[in-house]
Structures are given as structure tokens and as C-alpha cells.
Design a protein that fits this description.
The complex is a heterodimer of chains A (about 90) and B (about 240).
Chain A (H helix, E strand, L loop, with lengths): L2 H15 L25 H15 L6 H7 L3 H11 L2
Helix pairs in contact in A: 1-4
Chain B lengths: L4 E4 L5 H12 L3 E6 L3 H9 L4 E4 L5 H15 L4 E4 L14 H29 L2 E6 L2 H5 L5 H21 L4 E8 L5 H4 L3 H10 L8 H12 L10 E4 L5
Parallel strand pairs in B: 1-2, 1-4, 2-3, 4-5, 5-6, 6-7
Helix pairs in contact in B: 1-9, 3-4, 4-6
The chains are: A mainly alpha (about 90), B alpha/beta (about 240).
Chain lengths: ~90, ~240
Amino acid sequence: MEKDTLVDELKALIIKNLKLQDIAPADIDTAAPLFGGGLGLDSIDALELVVGLEKTYGIRIPDEDVGKEAFASVNALADYVLRNKK
Amino acid sequence: MSVPVALVTGGTKGIGKEIALLLAAKGMRVYMNFSTDRDAADAAGKEFNGETIQADVSDQDQVNAMVDTIMKKEDRLDILVNNAGIIRDGLLMLMPAKNWHRVMEVNLNSVFYCSKAVLRPMVGNRWGRIINIISPSALMGRAGQTNYAASKGGVLSFTRSLAREVARYGITVNAVSPGVIETELTRDMEARIRQEFISMIPAGRFGTPKEVARAVSFLASAEAGYITGEYLSVDGGLT
């Protein structure tokens, strides 16, 4: 999969999974941190995204070290998914 | 919606068995976990329309394998009752370190392993119930039970903290504290000790496993959805 396509897909998944109101994919900065940043999301919101990503892409985000790397930005998340998806 | 699935650790004997039977009677699909006593498990399994499943809950790999097995069969896990527990009573000054560590492994570490393993399915479903069995020793302290009391006190603090982490996902985490309950353990008690216990209990009698099971069943129900991070004593006024 093209990374650009995946980035768009991930933004849509984040909006749907975390039920973000009044936020469009274009509003999510590809390079900004997903949690504790401009989206108003906290670390507890991340739990649901972990479950959603694991279901959608067959990846595993086993612990917080991996989580920190994967959720550094949508860009980092796309890299992580590309490297690990089945 | 398919039938809710429940897992009760240490679920083939005593209080755990009564909890499993009551949840099954309420229409849930129930897995009774056991560790070593296969005869007791087979006997308990015959008493109800549910499953028995073996795993040592103090071993994280075995816990993960048990939850995987249930998820493969049922594709959901809605209710976890962390009931498995042991005592290794003794005065601290003379307590072997192994009796400290084993109580922590079985009573406290198991709660971490089992709760962690069920959270992914529960978060995914945005619904769940975790009910931890604690003890008056955790609330009042008891001479000869520093290890047990510390493990159950740990479970209570764990309960309150996890409740805050997962409340927004429709998952509640509560504890039930049974007082002195009629089980194999207390049935064999000397009459004198029995009388001593009863004199401490305002209700003037021991509780029954069923009375504990009813409290667990309430906290496991949809009706209890706004109660979380709490403990419910079922102890005849003891604490």
C-alpha cells in the first residue's frame, strides 16, 4: 500500500474510532503527536485506537514503548503499520 | 446480542463455584477456571451448563493462553471475576519469604495478568465488568495475615485505579469483600474458634457462598453500570 493512501486511511480511522466531532482528515497534522496535542486526545483515548488498529491491520501494539513510537504522529503510525501489518 | 461470556478464576470450589453457578443461572456463558484439582473441576463442571478451563493464574503465559482459547470460541469476554486466592498465614517475624511471594503471585499478580488480558476485548466492545474478590483483612488488617492483607489491599487499590482508566469505555471495576463464609475451610473449624469468630460478627452467623455470589452478580449486571471503583462488603457487619 502507498504510504499516502495509508495516511489518509489512518486519519479516517482515528476520526471514526475516537468519534471525533467536527474534525476532518485534513485537520489532522500528519507530523504532530496524536495524543496530548492539538486533537485534545489523552492517553486513555489511545486504548481504543490500539484495539481498532490491531483489528484493522492485524498488528500488535504490545506495550507503551511501542505505543510511544507508533503514536508519535500519523506519519510514524503509518510507518509502524507498514512495517508490521500482516 | 449474543449471550455475555464470563470467566471466574478459581471457579470450581467454594465461593468461586457459587459465583460461576449463579452467573450461569442468570443466563451467561460461564468459564470456571481451575489450576490443579481436575477432579473438583470435573465435578463442578457437571453441575452446570458451562465450561471448565485450566490455567495457573499466577503465570502470565497460561493466563494469555486461557483468554485466547475463550476468545477463539466465543469472540467476546464480558465479565471477569478475579476470585482465585490462597492463604499462607503466619506471623511476619517468622514468615518464610516464599510464603510472602507465593501469596503475592496468586492473589495480586494474577489480577494484573487476567485483567490485562481481558481489557482488549472489553475496550473493543465498549462494555465490561471486572469484579475482584478482596477480604476484611485488606480493610482492617489481621495478625498472621500480613502477606494476605497486603495482597488484597493491593487488589483494592488496583481496583480503584483501573476503574478510572477504563470508565469511559463502559467497563466497571469493583471489589467484593466477603466476611467469614461457610466453606470447606470454615466447616472444619474448631467449635471454640468458630464461636470466637461469630462473636465478632454483628449478624451473629457466618455468610453463605450464595450471599457473596449475589453481590458479584449485581455488580456484573447492566443495572450496576454507574458503580465503579467501589467495594461491597458482604460480611454481616464485621467491618
